[in-house]
């Protein structure tokens, strides 16, 4: 099994479990959520059977803790590797945006390939060049060289009340179409809007940005992480 594959698995497990934690709003819990084989198969675009085999290998190499029917969590070593890959991925994305003026919907696929090819030495140079940034073009936190990562101080848009003002700080769905849609609506990182209507039963909410209304599906809005702003 290639290191490329291992890196993609630990990264996917890390992203699934931390995203679950961020969007579930359950507060503190005793153990971190586990990633199911189904979720991993979907995230990696492979069959569930091959995920199960791979998880046994990760378990044997001390990177993951796999329990059939419960799912998989990362060990400390697995988490450290995932954070190192994410550090590379997110710094490459920001580097491409800042130096080549690529847009936030253009950088993910490029970074997916480059993250396995660049050395940690080069990444540290890029980090210095960019001024040790805290976040990437999607608002994702960039892990520090020691593997630490900033605590999240934002909530999903769907948890605000009508009338609240908010700043968009992170986008969890990074599909090209979704990011392009947000750009078209003027919804960029750091943009400020107000929540003007919330209709969970109809599955939609409406926000107002510079006197222009944008309707978002409830599910999509749950992927927008925001910080409250004074009204
Ligand atoms: Zn990103």
3D architecture notes:
This protein is of the alpha+beta class and 231 residues long. It is 43% helix and 19% strand. The protein has helices spanning 3-24, 37-44, 48-60, 76-100, 107-114, 120-129, 176-184, 218-221, and strands at residues 64-67, 71-74, 155-156, 165-171, 192-199, 204-209, 212-217, 224-229. A six-stranded antiparallel sheet has the order 3-8-4-5-6-7. Strand 5 and strand 6 (204-209) form a beta hairpin. The chain is globular, with a radius of gyration of 18 Å. The N and C termini lie far apart (53 Å). The mean pLDDT is 92. The site of zinc ion has 6 residues, from helix 4.
Main traits of this protein?
231 residues; alpha+beta; SH3 type barrels; 43% helix; binds zinc ion
